[in-house]
Amino acid sequence: MAQSDTVEGVEGLAQDWSSDREAFRDVPWGKGMMWIFLLSDTFIFTTFLTGYMTVRLSATAPWPVPSEVFALTLFGESIPLILIAIMTFVLITSSGTMALAVNYGYRRDKRKTFWLMIATATLGAMFVGMQIFEWSKLISEGVRPWGNPMGAAQFGASFFMITGFHGLHVSIGVIYLLVVAFKVKRGDYDNRGYEIVEITGLYWHFVDLVWVFIFAFFYLW
Amino acid sequence: MAYADQDTGHHAGPDKFIWKYVWSQDHKVIAVQYGCTAIAVGILALVLSWLMRMQIGFPGSLEFIDPSAYYQYVTMHGMIMVIYLLTAFFLGGFGNYLIPLMCGARDMVFPFLNMLSYWFYLLSVLILLASYFVPGGPTGAGWTLYPPQSILQGTPGTDWGIILMLASLAVFIIAFTMGGLNYITTVLQARCRGLTLMRMPLTIWSIITATVLGLLAFPALFVSAIMLMFDRVLGTSFFMPYIVHMGQALETGGGSPVLFQHLFWFFGHPEVYIVALPAFGLVSDILSTHARKNIFGYRMMVWAILAIGGISFIVWAHHMYVSGMNLYLGYFFATTTLIIAIPTAIKVYNWTLTLWHGNIHLNTPMLFSIGFISTFLIGGLTGLFLGNVAVDIPLSDTYFVVAHFHMVMAIAPIMVVFAAIYHWYPKITGRMYNETLGVIHFWVTFVGTYLIYFPMHYLGFEGMPRRYYAYEGYEFISESAHSLNEFISVVAILVGVLQILFIINMLMSLKTGKLAGANPWNATTLEWQTPQTPPAHGNWGDELPVVYRWAYDYSVPGADEDFIPQNQPGELGDGREVGDDTGHSSGEGAPA
Q1: A17, A36, A146: residue with CB nearest B185
Q2: Per the database entry, which stretches of residues form a coiled coil (chain A) (predicted)?
Q3: Would strands A77-79 and B244-245 be described as parallel, antiparallel, or unpaired?
Q4: Pick from B330, B326, B471, B454: which is nearest to B392 by CA?
Q5: A43–B584 C-beta distance less than 8 A
Q6: pLDDT tens-digit series, residues A21-75
Q7: Which of A152, B82, B178, B385 could disulfide-pair with A59, CB 3.0 to 4.6 Å?
Q8: Which of A19, A31, A203 should we substitute to test contact with B (largest number of B Cβ atoms within 10 Å)?
């Protein structure tokens, strides 16, 4: 719907905002709503991370060293953060397949869009699976929300809360992806347009981006 | 979805009662559902305040009020009034009703989500009320729910009440998020032709800003509720310091109680403006309409709303001067607190100047609006006292604070709730309310407010602490303070009971009120220009309205009448052609 009188830059922004009907030109409602939701969700995760950092500073017992806690013994050698590295790789790869899916969606290539979304969902499910493995490993080592053998009790509390909440987001994202993928396959969006794939993608990239911050602030710090 | 975006074509709404009035996706029905639920739960909170006043004014006269019960009343009264009444009423009630109508839309952009929003809200109310039916009763931690005391044994309701309270808050936030996303998207992306942002009524500006505040502030409450829930249920120590409790060292420790206060007030202070901003907007439109005069300084009003919204995120710790946080932070937060008074003062001046030389109709909505300016001014000025660290520290935890926040964020917004209900009642129901009863209701409420809360300022200066269960036997509380407390209690209960006038008026006028017609106030905004009154499903019949001017063309010189509706074309007033200042006026799927 490009129009010839489109003005770029600040002037264009001012023109859009002072127009009637729409403040964001040609942005579908669902997409606008998803952006606003993600802004709100950003505040949720920011608060989680701020809370975690505050209790980490206020904790009196020593904080466990993440690279040791999250090390995995492979081939007789202890490799720090190896599982987390794989998880991060998997999730970021899934963002790549998602971006491709959005592209093929707008090209109305239903088959490729479908399979790329399925691939994204599969990678997401892999991520959740590895997280379950990580959780059960820590639980078997005695880490609990209310305490752990390595040090400050807040470590376990923050870990289960933040990764749990993020994992919940990923799991919801996987279900969301599957639903949209099968609707794409069925041709539900032939008339309504394929913005929904992009909207799903926005959510998925957001979940991915949040993980990067969790990775940085929880595992690397 | 995809219903509200149709420009033409008439949709008959659903026929069956249950789809039309219960599981309705119509924003007007949802608004009434929100409003009625909020009033119902508000009446409960009103009764709780009578019980508290009985204990304060006539200690021991009601035997069932023991200390636990008293703290439960305090907690539930505060939480219900702030969250479940005021927030829900302004955004869920007025927001739902007015946004699509004032924006010239057929409905919210996602009606189904909007319906879910109400049902989640109702669920949160039910969870909250369920805490009366569990062992130990509701929580008595105070509405701020400060840990560690809110989850330690000894505080009423630590077994179940606090869990239900936190769960209810979380559900409420989910409900609010679903509604709020709808409100913002509707205003940004679904306005009718010709309605630019700077032609929107201030009601819309303020509701939308309050919604943004809510979407960014409620996350802090959501997260602190989850963390507190973990502390209570799982035994984590996010907020639990090392404590010796009843002679025993607790196993938890190392957490930060002040963190909770920061998170709570990061939500709590914007929450004040989530309630106050919609009140500002509604009152602006009501004043302008009934003074037959354009709002003074429209652009300044808009910028003031946005400025208040922005600054409200950096003032939160003025609630925490005595919390033990770093004292130097107090300088920063005292400064920002005083800065936020500037846009607020601009608004008060502009309301006053709107009235100046206006053709003032002293009917019920106007009276309540003027009552709002009065109470808000008093409450705002005491806010300047309390914003300064040196004044706040001695006054903190006295009745001065109780008087302050009741004037500024309980009574003032409630005045606007009443004003707005009376003002829009003819549109919602199609019938006029009883003016005499309305005026009596106003004077009872207005005079009663001052009789109740003005003396509390003196009690606070004298040093009467808040939150105490019993005030006997303290030498510093004089005999006259006790008699003043009796007086306040009598007036409070009387004024509370007389609110029945309002209920009677609303219910009776449904049947006996005279038919209002489409536009009884000769108002300019779009909701008064609907083809049917009350507006039918889809609001606008076959054709969406087109807006040609701003919302405040009252008493335009040379015009035939003293108002020009927003959808009337023409040269008078702000009658620029559609799209003059826009460059483009087409939207998705619209005939340009």
Answers
A1: A36
A2: none
A3: unpaired
A4: B330
A5: no
A6: 889 888 999 999 999 999 999 999 999 999 999 999 989 899 999 888 888 888 8
A7: A152
A8: A19
Pick from A41, A58, A161: CB nearest B256? A58
In a 13 Å sphere around the CA of A152, the CA atoms on its Cβ side amount to 26
* Residue B318 per-residue DSSP state: G
Task: Map residue B297 onto helix, strand or coil.
Answer: coil
Domain boundaries, chain B: 1-6+24-195, 368-377+397-516
Distances in Å between the Cα of B499 and the Cα atoms of A207, B3, B43, B448 are: 49, 40, 10, 11
What is the ipTM, given to two decimal places?
0.94
Q: What are the chain A neighbours of B2 within 8 Å (beta carbons)?
A: 192
One-character DSSP codes across A167-216: HHHHHHHHHHHHHHHHHHHHTTTTTT-SHHHHHHHHHHHHHHHHHHHHII
Let me know: does B566 contact B548? Beta carbons within 8 Å: yes
Residue B515 φ/ψ, nearest 5 degrees: -60, 135
Provide the whole-model pTM.
Answer: 0.94
Q: Reduced to 3 DSSP states, what percent helix, strand and coil does chain B have, rounded to the nearest 5?
A: 65, 0, 35
Helix H or strand E segment including B244? strand B244-245
Instruction: Tell me the nearest-neighbour CA distance from A203 into chain B, angstroms.
Output: 15
**Amino acid, res. B234:** L
Judge: A44–B223 Cβ closer than 8 Å, yes or no: yes
Query: Which of A19, A21, A168 should one mutate to test binding to chain B, selecting the residue with the greatest count of B CBs within 10 A?
Result: A21
Distance CA A197, CA A114 (A): 10
Predicted confidence band at A185 (pLDDT cuts at 50, 70, 90)? Answer: very high
Among the CATH numbers 1.10.530.10, 2.40.50.140, 3.40.50.2300, 1.20.210.10, which is that of B1-6+24-195?
A: 1.20.210.10
Q: How far is CA A209 from CA A90, A120, A205, in A?
A: 13, 15, 6
Number of H helices, E strands in chain A: 7, 2
**Looking at residue B393, what is its pLDDT?**
92
DSSP E strands in A37-137: the ranges are: 72-74, 77-79
Listed residue (B502, B506, B405) closest to B460, CA to CA: B405
Tokens (6 digits) for B56: 């304060």
Q: CA–CA separation, B384 vs B177, rounded Å?
A: 32
User: Nearest by CB to B583, which of A19, A46, A152?
Assistant: A19
Nearest CA in chain B to A151: B254
Amino acid at site A74: L
Tell whether the model's pLDDT for residue B576 goes beyond 90: no
Q: Which residues, at least 6 apart from A182, have a Cβ–Cβ distance to it below 8 Å?
A: A114
Euclidean distance between CA atoms B203 and B534, whole angstroms? 20
How do beta strands A77-79 and A72-74 pair? antiparallel
Mean pLDDT of B385-399: 93
Q: Is the dihedral of CA B442, B443, B446, B448 positive or negative?
A: negative
Residue B89: name the closest of B43, B140, B131, B21 by CA. B43
Distance separating alpha carbons of residues B538 and B8, to the nearest angstrom: 10
Helices (H), B190-256: 202-233
Domains of chain A: 28-220 (1.20.120.80)
What letter represents residue B211's amino acid?
T
Q: Does B182 touch chain A (CB under 8 A)?
A: yes
**Tokens standing for residue B480:** 């006259």
Q: Which helix (H) or strand (E) holds B245?
A: strand B244-245
Q: Are B471 and B56 in contact (CB under 8 A)?
A: yes
Copy the structure tokens of residue B320: 């925490």
Query: What is the per-residue burial (b if ≥16 Cβ within 10 Å, else e) of B534-568?
Result: ebbbbbbeeebbbbbbbbbbbbbeeeeeebbbbbb
